[in-house]
Write a structure and sequence with these properties.
- The chain has 422 residues and is α/β, with parallel strands linked by helices.
- It has a single domain, classed as Alpha-Beta Barrel (TIM Barrel), CATH 3.20.20.
- 29% of the residues lie in helices and 20% in strands.
- It is built from twelve helices and 20 strands.
- The strands form five sheets. Strands 1, 2, 3, 4, 5, 16, 19 and 20 form an eight-stranded mixed sheet that branches.
- Helix 1 links the parallel strand 6 and strand 7.
- Helix 4 crosses helix 6 and helix 6 runs parallel beside helix 7.
- The longest helix has 17 residues.
- The protein is globular and about 65 Å long.
- The two termini are 19 Å apart.
- Bound molecules: N-carbamoyl-L-aspartate (NCD) and zinc ion (ZN) (2 copies).
- The site of one zinc ion (ZN) has 6 residues, from loops.
Length: 422
Amino acid sequence: MRDLLITGAQLADGTSADLGVSNGHFVAPSDVTDAERIDADGLLALPGLVDPHTHLREPGREDAETIATGTLAAARGGYTAVHAMANLDPVTDTAEAAEYLAALAARTANAEVIVIGSVTKGLAGEQLSEMGLMNRSAAAVRMFSDDGRCVMDPLVMRRALTYAKTFDAVIAQHSQDTRLAGPTACCHESEISGRLGLAGWPAQAESAIIARDVELAQLSGGRLHVCHISTAEGVEVIRWAKARGVNVTAEVTPHHLYLGTREVESYDTTFKVNPPLRTDEHIEAVRAALADGTIDMVGTDHAPHAPQDKDHPFDIALPGMIGLEQSLAVVIEVMVDAGRLDWPGVVDRMSAAPARLTRLATQGRPIAEGEPANLVLVDPSARAVVDRDASASKSRNNPYHGRDLPDPVVATVWAGKVTHRR
Ligand SMILES: NC(=O)N[C@@H](CC(=O)O)C(=O)O
Ligand SMILES: [Zn+2]
Ligand SMILES: [Zn+2]
């Protein structure tokens, strides 16, 4: 691995610096030898982004995504670490499965892969998975989630929070009360769902579960993370819980920050996702909450799907959309350019906060000599029209296709190695 010399970059705090990289760490520029040069004049250098919520589909659905392609999409999006969700085939519910995934990632990944274990065996919602063994395994699992499914049974959720607490792990919940909507619910319950003849999820299907879970977090003293929060009601519950000192964090996806229920009018199943895209009042609520820190971080919920799982009537197509490559673009568009978040704020919401979630030692760190060399070089003013066929992902369910958006990621460096450069 060659040394790097990155010249003229501006850091998030506004200061300028030349950065040397050697042996995976930042060093003084004078300490590099035979370095590959990157001219970063006019560019921002931010710590590598960390995604708390990625679906990599390997093992099980390598036709939709692999660890190699998903983490290449991550690198193109400025990410140096992703947390790999457990709804794989086989489900990551044993120490062996967690170690297998970690070993596979060590061979093929273009970013650090942090293994998430499931909360329950087979995501069935009944018996706890081998949480303790997964934690003690070589994969050192510190986050558990049945994401894709909500842990509906409150006693199971209470036990998971209580047990995880003993080894400082966090339970990440897909907050969606399936009993508050019919089995065919597939979009936000609203005037539009009525007009389109689609069964809807009310906002309260989300906020009711969040309310229950923050009470269980309080009761157990465990750590709760709320995945992909999408409603004004959900945000209000988080605000209330934090004011009471409950140990809770929340994430919002780029698509819930940017896209709305109106996209569904085309019946294009690219826009089918859980939780569903919402109306303007909800979009405004999640933007405001990300700005004021009520929502702690951005999580992409990158959910690749093959055409044969999307080319169906809206109510039976699989939910999910990809997001790793355009996540920073969306945050720049709706938060930074709108004056709602400054660059230190972006670093916190997209790197430091998600790294704290699972206590990562080498990610979400400042750009400084001696620190691990994880960074993204950003051109904040570049723009481009998104082309889904230019994606590193194996899947094409890109909801930003054809839109004019920021195109910020010039280069990504993970552990001293250039994983993307345009
Ligand atoms: N978000 C989605 O609509 N789908 C996700 C699962 C999930 O995050 O709930 C998937 O795995 O496809
Ligand atoms: Zn989910
Ligand atoms: Zn997900």
